[in-house]
Design goal:
- The protein has 312 residues and is an alpha/beta fold.
- It has two domains: 80 residues, Up-down Bundle (Four Helix Bundle (Hemerythrin (Met), subunit A)); 201 residues, P-loop containing nucleotide triphosphate hydrolases (Rossmann fold, 3-Layer(aba) Sandwich), CATH 3.40.50.
- Helices cover 45% and strands 13% of the residues.
- It is built from eleven helices and eight strands.
- An eight-stranded mixed β-sheet has the order 3-2-4-1-5-6-7-8, with helices on both faces.
- Strand 6, helix 10 and strand 7 form a beta-alpha-beta unit.
């Protein structure tokens, strides 16, 4: 994971935590209170922030930690343990694989699909896209543009078509062609929660009946810059479908980054990928250890020459 090539997505959070620890002559209750406040104001939910600091407080007491560097290492470990879901952080490698992409409009779902298609194609996998977000005007056309740009096929119907019908046709095409990975876009917002739930339920039934031998992943795409709104989205979508993982987008220096810790901890959801830029290659597998370490190790961006055609 090449976090070092990007400006740190934790930004000011890193400086504040380092100042709270490194500039104090000793680690005391005031230090811990300051840490708790920093975590809460860095988009880490209150419950998670309190739990992290309580665990740190207990470690400081029992292990008699006094050295600032040791405190940094200990809080890194605590955060890493809370976001590390083991093999659940990894995408399934059992093919054929069908990936349902869910999330609100504007969260980066379409560009994430393009990035994933590009990634799988670079790995030598055959990829097919399904444009089942038929309720948003021009969504299918936008995805078709990306399919052409990445060099993969797409199954699409007209605007307002039945999303489940699009998925059904895509499943039939994937089976007939022996496709490795089918990535299906879905509606980000309908008239109400019941309509959204009905559509997702119908699509899941079509998938289970039409392609039962395929492995399924359902990924929720969340915009890291929306902060605590991302928590609400995880709660809403989690109430209508089984989510197997999170893709956290726009961690490119503007987001605080702490929301990843909250979602992973409070919802027990594994983060599969993070989006760290606007290029097709700026989608990286999530590494809990590197992520936790990055909180304390700020990095300056390393500007690479960008292929203009690759910028999303």
């Amino acid at each position: 994971m090449a976090f070092g090539t990007k400006k740190s997505f934790f930004g000011r959070m890193q400086e504040r935590i380092s100042d709270a620890i490194m500039l104090r002559p000793q680690i005391d209750e005031n230090t811990l209170d300051d840490l708790e406040e920093i975590l809460i104001t860095s988009d880490i939910g209150m419950n998670t922030a309190i739990a992290i600091v309580d665990e740190l407080r207990e470690a400081v007491r029992l292990e008699r930690i006094r050295d600032a560097q040791a405190v940094k290492e200990r809080i890194q470990q605590i955060i890493k343990e809370r976001i590390d879901k083991g093999d659940r952080n990894k995408m399934s490698v059992n093919y054929p694989l069908v990936i349902l992409m869910i999330g609100v409009n504007g969260g980066g779902k379409t560009t994430t699909i393009a990035k994933m298609a590009s990634m799988y194609k670079a790995e030598g996998k055959s990829v097919l896209l399904a444009a089942a977000d038929t309720f948003r005007a021009a969504a299918s056309d936008q995805l078709a543009i990306w399919a052409k740009r990445v060099g993969v096929d797409i199954i699409k119907h007209g605007d307002g078509a039945d999303p489940a019908a699009v998925l059904f046709d895509a499943l039939q095409a994937a089976k007939a062609r022996g496709t490795d990975v089918l990535i299906c876009d879905t509606a980000g917002r309908l008239q109400n929660k019941r309509n959204l739930m009905n559509e997702l339920e119908k699509m899941n039934k079509v998938l289970s009946r039409g392609f039962p031998e395929a492995t399924q992943e359902t990924l929720l795409v969340l915009d890291a810059t929306t902060g605590k709104n991302a928590v609400s989205q995880a709660q809403e979508f989690g109430s209508v479908t089984d989510i197997t993982g999170i893709v956290l987008t726009k961690l490119d220096g503007t987001a605080k980054g702490g929301i990843a810790i909250t979602i992973s901890d409070e919802f027990d959801l594994p983060i599969k990928f993070i989006g760290v830029g606007e290029r097709l290659r700026d989608l990286e597998p999530f590494d809990p250890q590197v992520f936790a370490t990055s909180i304390f190790e700020a990095t300056d961006s390393v500007d690479e020459e960008e292929d203009e055609e690759e910028v999303l």
